[in-house]
Amino acid sequence: MSARRELTLDEVAAKYPEFPRLIILKTDIQRRGVYYTADALDAVNPDVHHLGGTDIFGNRDGKLKYRPESFTLRDGTSVLSTPTPLENNPYVVDLIDGRVVLTDNGEILEEVFYWEKPDYYNKRTSSGALMQNVVGSRPQRLYLIPNRYCHFWTDDQGCKFCDIVNNLKQQKSEVEMQTRVTPKDVSETVKEALKEKGRFTAICLTAGSDFHGKNPFDKEIDYYIEILRSVGENFATKRFPSQLICTAVTKEQLKRLYENTGLSSLTMDIEVLNENAFNHVCPGKAKWIGYQEWKRRLIDAVEIFGESRVSTGIVSGVELVRPFGFESEDEALEAVLKEADELASHGVSTVNMVWIPRPNSHFANEKNASLEYYVRLAWELQEIRRKHHLKIDFDDYRRCGNHPDSDLARIF
Predict the structure, then answer these.
(1) What's the fold here for domain 120-410?
(2) Is residue 267 classed as helix, strand or coil in its secondary structure?
């Protein structure tokens, strides 16, 4: 990575005044992580607040229990944060004068508001499964992880930034988490969740890859069809507001998925928009599909789901990890945006996730990119969507909250 001095939050905000400061702050919170003081944790009411432990990925401090899942800022911006050890220089969430606040070097930056858990969380399905472990939530979205195991890990070819399987092992031992959920449990949980009128705007499914089947990934698609049908039992219309994040599968598999379910949007995460980096960072995806084929399948998906209904996600920052990554942030930004623009010209949006080096991943000891890099990337990705007249309403600030670039769709 570049050795130049990184700009502070205030310096980045001054340099890019057109970029909303609260979204810059959100981006830096994701980049640096958070630490909850004892007083901040005392302010958590387990009967009211959404506690962590159900996410598909782990935290920087390797712990699961009794921390807020996350929080919102004063303008309603949803922040997906990860608890981080103090020695890693995170932001600090503290309780000061009766308010839960975000601080940095002792300075109060913003008041924050812990997510409130939905009513269905403490209920159980007819099989006895705890509903919050069947279908999780974010402030305005149901979040379903039907399968928490990624088969790329079976021969150590999982993505190098990822800790999905190691996190699953911890969840199974500590928070009563199942590897796979049943369609009946899903249907019952969604039915209960929808009793909270106006609370949720969409449902998202994401899971690990499964290359088994007569054709590679047939088994993964079969399972998604089964689960999506169980979700659809709770809707009167054929299509319902939904997003599936899955492996890049063939056009025939995509048609089967679309025709046999009520799914309305699709995301197939390529993870890194550079072929050389992709091959190194995502060896399983490179082996089973390949970079160029992944892009072709994204474009094929537009033919089936339509423009503004297909996207891919990148874990931004991993493209800078040496020795295979770019030598500078400027070089990385130019290359990534060129690839994103090409995909957008075919109707595919790119959204970015701020990379979090997780302790149970291959990249545990690496460093993510500068705040300025993430701000420039987010701005340009949104500009690419504007240029190609693409919407991202199925994965925006309300329905996800993980992407700084799609947060910008709120104001443009």
Answers:
(1) TIM Barrel (3.20.20)
(2) strand
